[in-house]
Design a protein that fits this description.
The structure is a single chain. This protein is α+β, with helices and mostly antiparallel strands and 190 residues long. It folds into 2 domains: 89 residues, no CATH class; 82 residues, no CATH class. 52% of the residues lie in helices and 16% in strands. The chain has 7 helices and 5 strands, in the order ββαααβαααββα. The strands form 2 sheets. A 3-stranded antiparallel sheet has the order 3-5-4. Strands 1-2 form a two-stranded antiparallel sheet. Helix 1 crosses helix 2, helix 3 packs across helix 7 and helix 4 crosses helix 5. It is elongated and about 90 Å long. The two termini are 37 Å apart. The relative contact order is 0.08. It comes from Escherichia coli.
Length: 190
Amino acid sequence: TMQNCIVSFEGRGGGTFAHELLAVEYAGWISPAFRLKVNQTFIDYRAGRLQPAIPKSLPEALRLAADLAEQKQRLEQKMLMDAPKVEFAERVATASGVLIGNYAKVLGLGQNYLFTWLRDNGILIATGERRNVPKQEYISRGYFTLKETVIDTSNGSRISFTTRITGKGQQWLMKRLLDAGVLVPVAATR
């Protein structure tokens, strides 16, 4: 059953392990190529184009079992190593958001450049009192939040808007900036 999705064992050889189905789903999230391979294999199997390999001898069965155990161990080790990255990504995705200027700094872009790019690409309103306010569709998708503040001046009251980009919006915008060639992907180093 799926009741014990994640289990922990103490002692020698212990660790925290996810249910096999979760591990496969996680691996698919990490590697789209892996997900495509899994999906194609499933489609081939359902169509009868793929039959499970049944070992013909005891040594073949033992080798297959050993190979599967090694593969499972590698995936579990990768999952443990990637756990901090996943935790960080989940925290970013659920965060209430940061100011666009601060996000620009994180990306290594100038604040003015990012605001101009967002306006030029129709994400922020370009003119008027609501200049630099996200268009409603992007707020509705959860990419931005908007805070309204009433400011009292000698000429009366006016409303000021503060735009924040959510964690979900940060991930979405980074992909847009990469696709547009504004950001250049950097190879990960270990």
